[in-house]
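Worked example 3 (structure in, sequence out).
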């Protein structure tokens, strides 16, 4: 407030100087207009906050998912993402958290995607980092760009193009992008660069999140999960994972049109131990609590923990471990005012995970999710896609071939099973 008063005083003094040869009435009118404009601008900024509109969970990229030749060093990568809510001011986050060497980005641009590798050239904006276009991320570091103006529409696909300098032999990224990225040799950052002959790869590297300056009423739902949340079985470049279906429905509903969706699923991820990427417990603070504007959390994870058990006793221990882990996440989220919704674990019958003792453990966990009262609400994904004639397996028309991962139809069913009033 003190700084605002000083600014008002400065405006008043400047106007007195500029109007010194005019009438008193003109001076007063000018001052009133200036003060009114300043107050309106200040009030507008006060009514907005940073909210995540897109994010992905970073991990150490496994050898089979590394960038293809020619690699990232001294080359240019274009990556496409689909946001949830819109706005006119953005900032982007990049991660080198799992790499052991620095990564230099010489130039970073964002533009509206016109589909595939093409962009709307008139929309290109170059990012700055502490006022400079070049930035080096140290090992274990994540960075955020300076805020910049950009006309971001809800569910817009944007292309993030990076001209790299030296990069790390080991790479931080997100293998399960379900979205094609485009790699060109050399620095091809010019707005007119043709990416039609680029090397293609269905992975994301170093990009981590987009925040938008949104109205006070805006908020985000963050989802922690495994490959079923990450979208294995959904269509590449179709943006039709179940969190995408939820995001589309929220935007179409007037009471929830300012609710963003942050998909923090990692394929192969586990809650307790093992799996790919940091466990859900280990990444919970970074991927959920440290996101901006999160008011709700959906927990939909645990099948990989159960799938790794080798005996009845081990399955029982993991089931209890999952229940304890859910409780811990609930408590930590509630401490930050975040409501937590429990997603039941979907069927495993006929899948490579099925055994009798794992099925018993899955039902134990699901029964606790449904009846413990610890969650603020339950989203019953199990019931949404299971076969009514064989409730221990996924509907044949909803599974992708392995009877563990849903297909595109199954993801629509999951996304449509969520009560939108939970986010009003």
């Amino acid at each position: 407030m003190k700084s605002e008063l000083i600014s008002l005083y400065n405006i008043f003094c400047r106007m007195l100087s500029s109007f010194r040869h005019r009438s008193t009435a003109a001076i007063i009118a000018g001052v009133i207009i200036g003060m009114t404009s300043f107050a309106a601008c200040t009030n507008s900024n006060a009514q907005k906050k940073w909210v995540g509109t897109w994010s992905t969970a970073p991990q150490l990229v496994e050898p089979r998912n590394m960038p293809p030749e020619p690699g990232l060093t001294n080359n240019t990568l274009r990556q496409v993402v689909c946001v949830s809510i819109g706005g006119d001011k953005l900032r982007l986050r990049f991660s080198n958290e799992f790499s052991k060497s620095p990564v230099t980005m010489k130039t970073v641009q964002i533009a509206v995607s016109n589909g595939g590798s093409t962009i709307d050239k008139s929309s290109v904006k170059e990012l700055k980092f502490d006022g400079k276009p070049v930035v080096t991320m140290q090992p274990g570091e994540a960075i955020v760009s300076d805020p910049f103006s950009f006309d971001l529409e809800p569910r817009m696909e944007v292309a993030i193009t990076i001209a790299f300098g030296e990069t790390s032999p080991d790479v931080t990224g997100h293998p399960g992008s379900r979205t094609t990225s485009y790699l060109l040799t050399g620095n091809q950052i010019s707005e007119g660069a043709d990416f039609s002959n680029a090397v293609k790869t269905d992975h994301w590297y170093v990009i981590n999140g987009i925040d938008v300056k949104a109205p006070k009423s805006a908020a985000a739902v963050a989802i922690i999960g495994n490959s079923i949340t990450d979208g294995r079985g959904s269509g590449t470049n179709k943006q039709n994972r179940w969190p995408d279906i939820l995001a589309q429905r929220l935007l179409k509903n007037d009471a929830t049109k300012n609710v963003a969706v942050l998909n923090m699923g990692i394929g192969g991820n586990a809650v307790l131990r093992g799996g790919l990427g940091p466990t859900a417990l280990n990444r919970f603070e970074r991927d959920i609590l440290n996101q901006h504007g999160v008011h709700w959390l959906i927990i939909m994870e645990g099948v990989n923990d159960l799938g790794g058990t080798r005996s009845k006793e081990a399955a029982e221990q993991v089931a209890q471990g999952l229940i304890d882990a859910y409780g811990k996440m609930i408590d930590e989220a509630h401490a930050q005012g975040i409501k937590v919704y429990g997603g039941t674990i979907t069927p495993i019958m006929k899948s490579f995970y099925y055994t009798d003792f794992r099925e018993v453990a899955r039902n134990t966990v699901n029964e606790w999710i449904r009846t413990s009262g610890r969650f603020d609400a339950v989203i019953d994904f199990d019931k949404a896609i299971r076969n009514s004639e064989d409730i221990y397996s996924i509907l044949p028309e909803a599974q992708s071939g392995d009877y563990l991962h849903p297909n595109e139809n199954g993801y629509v069913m999951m996304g449509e099973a969520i009560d939108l009033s939970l986010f009003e």
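Notes: The CA atoms of residues 11 and 34 lie 7 Å apart. DSSP finds ten helices and 23 strands in the chain.
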